[in-house]
Design goal:
Elements: H1 2-45, H2 51-77, H3 80-89, E1 98-99, E2 107-111, E3 120-126, H4 140-147, E4 152-156, H5 166-183, E5 189-199, H6 201-218, E6 233-237, H7 243-250, E7 254-255, E8 258-259, H8 260-263, H9 266-269, H10 281-284, E9 294-300, H11 309-320, E10 326-330, H12 336-341, H13 346-361, E11 376-377
Parallel strand pairs: 3-4, 3-5, 5-6, 6-9, 9-10, 10-11
Antiparallel strand pairs: 1-2, 2-4, 7-8
């Protein structure tokens, strides 16, 4: 009888080892594919760099991306309610995974859709993740929360590093806005009232696509479709708006045994340090640009990932060149403004939405009777 029990257990153990082996091989394959993509992107942008150095850099950046994704899992363990809400959103099959282009990351989700009643204001939310991590699935709570307030929300994927660099990101954001303009009315959206918003690196690329569009229009070299005229308000959360400043800041910050700038996808995503000014919104602002009539920048005063000086300098440049802007300083760190937008930070949520919702629902800036533009502080 004992021998029979042992024989019964052996097939189970063999199947378990096969399953574990399959999972291991799958993850090794995905790792190699990611290394290959990173290597190819680095060779395209830095052809003078040796093959060995490029391969080592590809391995380091790939490890950074994978550890970042692991960090998302650890973060989720500390926010079980957010995890439950995120998982629940995956069953919304009717309004998930609209394609706006041919790439695997050219997909977006809609929240707060309606077939009847008045048109709803639209928010296009651009996720962050150090220009390299996460996807729309992690940000479903943004759309869920805004839908409670009668807002149609677009939460999109786009080509982050190593699927693409900053120019690919900008191309994708233009396509996201164009898809929204063409399709939001079918789902109850008011395309005359679109707010573009982003968190962290998402705030950077969202502001950058607006600046680039406005600069082309000012130079009378616009494309057939431009983003800037379509956006009524811009809301940035905890954004790095100057690549030179942020690179210098990261060079003083450590992540484990590494200097942050040495492993951050910032450098390769922006084509190297020599190109940072081209992709720094703070350095691109000019007078009389056709930017959204309402711009609001939220930032935590205790942010140690992106210092609040980034927002302050961007706001200062905008004001200096005649563009109205409001700065909302929050008593928190880097991720809390996003959690408030998701409805997951009870301490900030009420005051955050008191500033955020009026921008989205009925943008009016500058307020009547106010000639100057002053920062507000919560």
């Amino acid at each position: 009888m004992v021998a029979g029990a042992q024989l019964a257990r052996r097939p189970w153990r063999a199947s378990a080892w096969k399953l574990l082996g399959t999972i291991a091989l799958y993850n090794i394959w995905n790792h190699l594919v990611l290394v290959g993509r990173t290597f190819g992107l680095l060779r395209r942008r830095f052809p003078a760099q040796s093959l060995v150095r490029t391969f080592v850099a590809a391995c380091i950046y790939t490890l950074t991306v994978e550890l970042g994704e692991l960090g998302n899992i650890v973060f989720g363990m500390g926010h079980p309610r957010l995890v439950r809400r995120t998982l629940a959103s995956s069953f919304r099959l009717r309004t998930n995974d609209f394609k706006y282009g041919p790439h695997e990351r050219h997909a977006l989700d809609l929240f707060g859709t309606t077939r009847s009643g008045s048109r709803r204001p639209v928010v296009i939310f651009i996720h962050g993740g150090a220009w390299a991590m996460t996807n729309k699935f992690h940000y479903a709570a943004v759309g869920q929360e805004l839908s409670k307030h009668g807002v149609l929300t677009v939460v999109a994927n786009y080509r982050v590093f190593p699927h693409g660099d900053v120019e690919d990101m900008l191309e994708d954001l233009e396509a996201i806005v164009q898809w929204t303009v063409e399709n939001a009315p079918k789902h109850g959206g008011d395309v005359s009232n679109i707010t573009l918003s982003g968190h962290s690196s998402g705030a950077h690329v969202a502001s950058l696509v607006l600046l680039k569009s406005a600069l082309r229009i000012a130079a009378k070299s616009q494309k057939s479709f431009e983003v800037a005229p379509r956006i009524k308000a811009f809301v940035g959360l905890s954004g790095p708006y100057d690549m030179d400043d942020h690179y210098a800041f990261e060079s003083q910050r450590r992540i484990a045994v590494f200097r942050a700038h040495a492993i951050s996808p910032l450098h390769p995503s922006m084509h190297g340090r020599a190109q940072f000014p081209r992709f720094s919104p703070s350095q691109l602002v000019l007078k009389n640009l056709p930017l959204p009539r309402q711009i609001c920048l939220f930032h935590g005063v205790d942010d140690v990932v992106v210092p609040i000086s980034s927002t302050q300098r961007f706001a200062s440049q905008l004001r200096e060149h005649g563009t109205p802007v409001e700065v909302v300083e929050l008593p928190c760190g880097h991720v809390e403004p996003l959690l408030a937008l998701m409805g997951e930070d009870a301490a900030l949520q009420e005051s955050f939405f008191a500033s955020f919702l009026p921008l989205v629902q009925a943008p009016r800036w500058p307020p009547s009777g106010h000639a100057g533009v002053l920062p507000s502080k919560l």
